[in-house]
Design brief:
The complex is a heterodimer of chains A (about 180) and B (about 450). In chain A, the strands form 2 sheets. A 5-stranded mixed sheet of chain A has the order 1-2-5-4-3. Chain A has a two-stranded parallel sheet with strand order 6-7. Chain A is of the alpha/beta class. The radius of gyration of chain A is 19 Å and the shape is globular. Chain A has helices spanning about 1-15, 25-30, 50-60, 125-135, 170-175, and strands at about 35, 45, 65-75, 85-90, 95-105, 110-115, 135-140. Chain A is about 30% helix and about 20% strand. Chain A contains 5 helices and 7 strands, in the order H-H-E-E-H-E-E-E-E-H-E-H. Chain B is α+β, with helices and mostly antiparallel strands and about 450 residues long. Helices cover about 45% and strands about 10% of the residues of chain B. Chain B is built from 18 helices and 11 strands. Chain B has helices at about 40-50, 110-115, 120-125, 135-150, 155-185, 185-205, 230-250, 255-260, 270-275, 280-285, 290-295, 315-340, 355-360, 365-375, 415-420, 425-430, 435-445, 445-450; strands spanning about 5-10, 15, 70-75, 85-90, 95-100, 215, 220, 385-390, 395-400, 410-415, 430. In chain B, the strands form 4 sheets. Chain B has a 4-stranded antiparallel sheet with strand order 3-4-5-11. In chain B, a hairpin with a 2-residue loop joins strand 4 (about 85-90) and strand 5 (about 95-100). The chains are: A alpha/beta (about 180), B alpha+beta (about 450). Chains A and B meet through strand 3, strand 4 and helix 4 of A and helix 2, strand 8, strand 9 and strand 10 of B.
């Protein structure tokens, strides 16, 4: 009995209270019923499926999120069933609002649509995520390594990429020694 | 005068008769008589002025292949501010396309952060943007504090504002100095570094180091301000604005400076927003956006300051904005020094704050406590957060994920220089190759920040 009530209370606590959500976000959430709104440390966060990701980003841009402030990724290796989580921080000057999109990406098919068509500024950060995590952005104009050397093998920010596992950095110097 | 008559044409419109073809003895010249060339049409001019951006990835089919030349600039070029490499596709003296190539300074700091405790984190992030180390530490510390759910005492907040604003001044001074040096105003370089020394001396006195301070830490700052700090700050507040006036007298109306900077490296507000460009570059296009005003942090909203904006979005506007931002930062520093609250400079939370040094000699528990914090660190509740501060280069964000352990599960820095570098192909499309240097300098990229 008490257990049930606790569960119910937790459910109520997790559910967003409509008064806290700004109108812009409420409209977005209403348009995409599968997106889960869950504020994290007082910040607006939407967990989106891969199918909804690009349409929702486009709707967000049209709703006033002019800036794609950041694209990055988290590797939940052996912590979560879906390994990768793409993190997109959007910023609206007009509404003085930030919105974070979290997109779970499975490890066996790490492909997501690119945002470069909506915000050309997503070019560099998406290349960085590709470089560091091996996530492929479909429709990206120039998906190449950006920080690591072109002949680098592996994706360094993956959790199963050990820090000290590579003795030398460049293949050329490896041959010389 | 009578030569220049207009004769009615068939459709009634006026027809201009050339003066020197109508029987005068003036020898014919090309001047003024040639038709508008293909390269001077309205859309072409707009591209050259930067208001329209040619697609980077589409070849310009007008010019034959053999007139194009790709040159490689950097990474060891003195004016690329470190190890930036640019591939420039030239057609004569005009840059048609360009591509920044980065990664030469990549040291895997985000990976390193996953192996350091939350308390050790600032030593790592402070080495990213080495011209604004305190802003990096601040962004990181704010993120950790937000996950911990702690609020630092007012004195710590005021010290943080004081130090980061002084850091903004020193960073902008380097930007002005190198901007001057790159264009050939060598005295500007000497002046900028001379004034920066004033601030670095104060930093050394306070934090022990000129750069890479590890001063702002989760929970407050490392040490209190040194004795006599009011005198030092007063000296800075007194000296810098007068020197800025000198720079303005020297350069703001200097015809050589104007011709090298006015209308060079132009970018529009729409392009800035689309490319995620922030900081002085965004403000030079007239967008009134400063995170200190939009999302105030560390109590900076208590102080009065203005956000300067430009109109043309060119190198000259960015130069003026940096000078005005120095003045505004000095204004903030002056107010902070006057209203510096008394109290503790660290949060009173034993979980985060080590015991005072004096207690260690007399208390075993204090020694253990100290040892625990500096070896294991403290645990941070699970969660994720994104905190951004206004660094001298723009939005400096820290995305921090904790799984409940003593080390971050993921720490990502949204580096302003990394995003701002994407403006380079936009600014340089169809401009003269000679303006490249001025454009890069006005962007003020720090390669440590770009590559991390």
């Amino acid at each position: 009995m008490t257990d049930e009530r606790q569960v119910a209370d937790e459910g109520a606590a997790e559910g967003p209270s409509p008064a806290e959500i700004p109108d812009v976000l409420a409209e977005l959430v209403a348009r995409f019923p599968e997106a889960v709104y869950a504020p994290s440390a007082g910040q607006h966060t939407l967990t989106v499926s891969r199918d909804d990701y690009h349409p929702l980003a486009e709707a967000a841009r049209d709703a006033g999120f002019e800036v794609c402030a950041d694209v990055t990724c988290v590797d939940w290796f052996r912590r979560r069933p879906v390994r990768f989580e793409l993190v997109v921080n959007l910023l609206s000057h007009r509404h003085r609002l930030r919105l974070r999109l979290l997109v779970p990406v499975p490890a066996d098919d790490p492909v997501v649509p690119s945002l470069t068509g909506l915000w050309p500024g997503a070019n560099f950060p998406e290349r960085e995520v590709f470089d560091m995590f091996g996530i492929v952005f479909e429709g990206h104009p120039d998906l190449t390594r950006i920080l690591m050397p072109d002949d680098w093998e592996g994706h360094p920010l993956r959790k199963d990429f050990a820090v000290g596992s590579v003795p030398v950095q460049f293949k050329a110097s490896h041959k010389a020694t | 005068m009578s030569d220049e008559t207009t004769t009615p044409t068939v459709d009634g419109g006026p027809e201009v008769v050339d003066i020197w073809l109508s029987g005068t003895e003036v020898p014919p010249t090309d001047e003024g008589a040639q038709e508008m060339a293909e390269s001077e049409t309205e859309p072409r001019l707009r591209e050259q002025l930067g208001s329209v951006v040619a697609d980077d990835y589409v070849d310009d089919e007008v010019a034959p292949e053999d007139e194009r030349m790709i040159i490689n600039m950097g990474p060891q070029h003195p004016s690329t501010h470190g190890v930036l490499r640019l591939q420039l596709e030239l057609e004569g003296e005009i840059i048609r396309r360009s591509k920044p190539i980065i990664g030469y300074l990549h040291t895997g700091m985000e990976k390193t952060a996953e192996g350091l405790t939350f308390a050790q984190g600032p030593t790592n992030v402070t080495r990213m943007d080495y011209l604004a180390p305190l802003h990096n530490e601040l962004a990181y510390s704010l993120a950790v504090e937000q996950l911990l759910g702690i609020e630092v005492p007012p004195r710590a907040q005021a010290i943080r504002v004081l130090m980061t604003e002084l850091n903004r001044v020193s960073s902008h001074l380097v930007a002005l100095a190198t901007n001057g040096m790159d264009i050939g105003a060598l005295s500007m370089m000497l002046y900028g570094f001379r004034e920066r020394e004033l601030i670095l001396e104060f930093f050394e006195k306070t934090t022990g180091l000129r750069m890479n301070h590890n001063y702002i830490r989760p929970g407050g700052v490392a040490v209190d301000l040194p004795p006599g700090w009011r005198r030092d700050v007063a000296r800075i507040v007194e000296t810098i604005p007068a020197r800025i006036q000198d720079y303005e007298d020297l350069l703001a109306e200097n015809p050589i400076w104007l011709s090298r900077t006015k209308g060079v490296g132009v970018i529009t507000a729409e392009e800035c927003l689309a490319y995620g460009i922030t900081g002085p570059i965004l403000r030079s296009t007239g967008v009134d956006w400063d995170l200190r005003k939009a999302f105030p942090y560390s109590g900076i909203d208590q102080y009065e300051f203005d956000v300067p904006t430009g109109t043309n979005g060119d190198v000259y506007d960015r130069f003026l904005i940096r000078m005005e931002e120095i003045r505004q930062s000095i204004r903030i520093v002056d107010q902070v020094a006057e209203t510096m609250p008394k109290g503790d400079y660290r949060v009173d939370d034993r979980k985060v704050t080590p015991p005072p040094r004096a207690r260690i000699d007399e208390s075993m528990e204090a020694l253990i406590h100290h040892f625990k914090i500096f070896t294991e660190g403290f645990r941070v509740p699970p969660g994720e957060t994104y905190v951004a501060v206004e660094s001298p280069r723009g939005e400096l964000g820290c995305y921090l994920v904790s799984d409940g352990g003593g080390k971050p599960w993921r720490m990502h820095i949204r580096a302003p220089s990394f995003y701002n570098l994407q403006a380079l192909p936009v600014m340089m499309a169809d401009t003269l190759v000679a303006d490249t240097i001025a454009t890069i300098a006005s962007l003020d990229p720090v390669m440590g920040d770009v590559d991390r």
